[in-house]
Amino acid sequence: MREELAEYAHNAWAGWMKYLFEKSAQNADGTVTIPVWAVIRWRRQMNTQYEALPEGDKELDRLEADKMLAILERPNLASSGRGGRRANQRSGNGRRAA
Fold first, then answer.
1. Among 11, 45, 47, 71, which one is least packed by beta carbons within 10 Å?
2. What is the value of pTM for the model shown?
């Protein structure tokens, strides 16, 4: 289950990064510039407590929570002796350094 949650976390992060880069301007030197509308919106969102979010933003967070709950509600195949799809894989080598 730990690996499934870690996979979910990575996929959520990767999806966010893809979105961020799609919305940002690609500069000639390889850097990106986040547009001002996104900076304003994302700063507001990150500085807003969940309770104070608009209902639409809360619903998006609930959908993310549902994905995590679905993982937590799955039977733990590795502990049952049946193995999971990752049960026989070696652990990763820290591919994300930063």
1. 47
2. 0.66
Give the H or E element holding residue 25. strand 25-26
pLDDT tens for residues 70-90? 999 988 755 554 444 443 333
The full length of the chain comes to 98
Q: Are 72 and 1 contacting, i.e. CB atoms less than 8 angstroms apart?
A: yes
Q: pLDDT tens across 38-60, in order?
A: 999 999 999 999 999 999 999 99
**Alpha carbon distance 67, 84 (integer Å):** 19
Number of structural domains (the chain) is 1
92 within a domain of the structure (yes/no): no
Residue 26, domain member (yes or no)? yes
| Domain of 57, in residue numbers | 2-73
Does residue 94 lie within any of the structural domains?
Answer: no
State how far the Cα of 18 lies from the Cα of 22, in Å rounded to an integer: 6
Rounded Cα distance between 10 and 95, Å, is 11
